[in-house]
């Protein structure tokens, strides 16, 4: 069935594209593109003396140029790659902390792809527990274009990149001064200023400076600034007689909101909607009652939980690049980056949702903690005389157990990549050879403290106290402390260091003018060492909420582990005509255990994750059409799953671990049609069959072991079908550009058991550009015009192996951000 589906999809897509191409060729009046897409030079996931165009690459790559990027105007790093086939992206959490699932590799965050800036990793490990690479990078007008490699040789040239690499390439300074200023406003109180200026500064040196500043109240408004901050960068470069050199310094001080799930329900006709009293498009549980909370700690101190901070990143980054001709046709390419990143990540996590009546029924057993009490009631913390209506408060009668989680992560990192290159000629054939050495070292501290708070289920939720009352309704005591149900249900103190050394080599063998074979090897070794402090549970007194506070016990458990592995890739490209070609590739990739494996679990049993990736593709480009079709296969082994299920009764998170493999067959389509000078259509689509293989684990039910077997289940949060279509028109001799985007995401699942469905959805957006003069351009952006409530994820805290939300009428889920508008003016000089 699967092979029939994919083969039918392949035939339909390819035949349709060829028919469109043939039809457009029949229109003699159609304009000719100045260049074809295949002529673009590629710099990502390859190394060599000679440049390579997109036509000459033997792997899948998406290029997003300056105009396309500016028309798309992504609000986050994750949004920037939503036009890339093979990637399922989730950006409903805000400007940072996005998720990318690539080609059937079931890893959250940026665990399967690396994020590059000017070819250098933003972060050696892009999925460093609670610190994804997109938190340490912001997109602004200093970036000119983006190259996205899917699979291919990414894992040879970069660490932690089995499924690909996303390279944000900065602007280069020309021979004359130039610059731009762009100001953007939005209907969510957005004010943003971007600027860039580049100029020669004498003696062959060139200086570029730029950055951004931004403040807004958020599309889901918490009633305080959601996003606030910016960054500045300066680049000094020079072309030398035998190479070039550049220095780049960037400082970021920015905080962004972390949007989490909201209360949803399934109504009578099966549609999923927010619960009554909650705005699904713009509402958030975060609000004034959870903005500033002083949480008691086990050592007697107070933890200042400040949700106004959101994810606050202070980062200073210094980069250096040096290319030099060593003589005798040998070349040296050197790049290094040092960064210091301080992150405070605060969030209001909705751990559980239930009816107030069932909550009280469960906690009635705790009445003995309040002498004389005969019953329990919910009262509002800001208005103790207001009794919560358990039947229909806010139209829903629901209570949320919130996790107020604060995480602190300072990281210092050094990355160095040294390459030696030479091209060897052998008659009509040549070998473009690279030998490389990569080193990465970073130190990380980690601290976490969390408490649970009870709130109602409304926009900007209000805190609730659970009080004991006598027969007359008089309050005799409280099981909570100003809404806090339990202090210290999470606590961590850890520190670690990671050292990575890798040696790699690649060869691009030009067999004939049309045929090139390339391959590569990478040997990598990592050592992680550090400590994690043990925990104990104590009663610090003063409130029932403080009777079981987790804190440190002063016992440090040390670890010192090393792992190594070799990966390889082999590909071929047959460019049998200037307009089209075929390529094929097989890659054996891996991801080594890392510091995140141990930082909170020093006795963890690490698993080395290995992958086999295959792809074969056809590319065609002329003045009427750019078309790329790629079939891929991914096998991913030793995937570990930690299932942290929040238990409201015990206010604890219980870990469950499973191990599995995955197999995915898929087809990616990407391209642009140019029927006329004034009309074009961009498109990308992914058809895939992502399955778990051998996923099983033992659960405990009624004190007896139960085997859970989810073999052949669909990968969580990955659709089988997704596509994006962007038709656009160019009017007034190209001065006016109008385009509409339509995005469809197929059905997905919350958990590996496939017990909770995330229904298919679609999103409509639009953008416009008007060049008022050669210097002044105006832009209009409209996102999620129809206010789609498409669900991007369920509640991970309900369990991602087998969700405890299965069969529930009300649950926590995270939908798309609501409709928003932005207007921008850009002036070039």
Please provide a brief summary of the model.
This protein is mainly beta and 829 residues long.
Structure characterization notes:
By secondary structure, the protein is mainly β. It has a single domain (2-358, 396-828), classed as TonB-dependent receptor, beta-barrel domain (Maltoporin, Chain A), CATH 2.40.170.20. Helix content is 6%, strand content 59%. It is built from six helices and 46 strands. The strands form nine sheets. The chain has a 22-stranded antiparallel β-barrel. The N and C termini lie far apart (58 Å). Residues 1-32 have low confidence and may be disordered.
> Stretches where pLDDT falls below 50 for ≥5 residues?
1-32
Secondary structure category = mainly beta
Largest sheet: 22 strands, antiparallel, barrel
Number of helical regions: 6
By CATH reckoning, the class would read Mainly Beta
Total individual domains: 1
Percentage of residues in DSSP E strands: over 45%
Tally of DSSP β-strands: 46
Indicate the CATH architecture: Beta Barrel
Q: What's the rounded overall pLDDT mean?
A: 91
Spatial shape = globular
CATH topology: Maltoporin, Chain A
Radius of gyration: 28 Å
The separation of the N and C termini measures 58 Å
Task: Give the helix level as a range of percent.
Answer: under 10%
The CATH fourth-level homologous superfamily: TonB-dependent receptor, beta-barrel domain
Protein name: TonB-dependent receptor
Keywords: Cell outer membrane, Ion transport, Iron, Iron transport, Membrane, Receptor, Signal, TonB box, Transmembrane, Transmembrane beta strand, Transport
Organism: Luteibacter yeojuensis
Domain TonB-dependent receptor-like beta-barrel: 295-785
